[in-house]
Amino acid sequence: MTRLLSAIAGVLGVCATTAAAATDIPMDTIVLGGLDKVAARVNTVSGKVGAPVAFGTLEIVARTCVTHPPEETPENAAFLEIFQRLDGGKKEKVFSGWMFASTPSLSALDHPVYDIWVLRCESSTASKSP
């Protein structure tokens, strides 16, 4: 199979081991979906990248939020840190990692009360109307 791919690549004049990679576009606003399993309510929350966003007893900080260019397959991804606020003002980290809008179950928050998922990344300057 590898020989066949190399032969085809040679005919086309491209390297068989080089994969095309999309250049992610960094955005400054994240939009998240959240489910409170106890109250059975789904809410949408948004906030600036780097700033904490509250959802129930959770504090969510998006460290980065990126989207693919329009000519690529649609995808939004964010690196999130999620903390559980405890009594006495303390916080416990319950999640740290990448979440992808197209596959929310790939890297999900494991919490008994809340589910959080990425909906999209936005640019605050592009979303403002004149």
Characterise this structure.
With 130 residues, the chain is mainly beta. The chain has one domain (23-123). The protein is 12% helix and 47% strand. It has two helices and eight strands, in the order αββββββββα. It has helices at 2-12, 124-127, and strands at 25-26, 29-36, 41-48, 52-55, 58-67, 76-85, 91-100, 114-122. The strands form two sheets. Strands 1, 4, 5, 6 and 7 form a five-stranded antiparallel β-sheet that branches. Strands 3-2-8 form a three-stranded antiparallel β-sheet. Strand 5 and strand 6 (76-85) form a beta hairpin. The longest helix has 11 residues, at 2-12. It is globular. Mean pLDDT is 85; it is low at 13-17.
Strand content: over 45%
* Class of secondary structure makeup: mainly beta
The outline comes out as globular
The total strand number stands at 8
Helix-strand blueprint:
Elements: H1 2-12, E1 25-26, E2 29-36, E3 41-48, E4 52-55, E5 58-67, E6 76-85, E7 91-100, E8 114-122, H2 124-127
Antiparallel strand pairs: 1-5, 2-3, 2-8, 4-5, 5-6, 6-7
In short:
The chain has helices at residues 2-12, 124-127; strands spanning 25-26, 29-36, 41-48, 52-55, 58-67, 76-85, 91-100, 114-122. It is mostly beta strands.
Main attributes of the structure:
globular, mainly beta, 8 strands
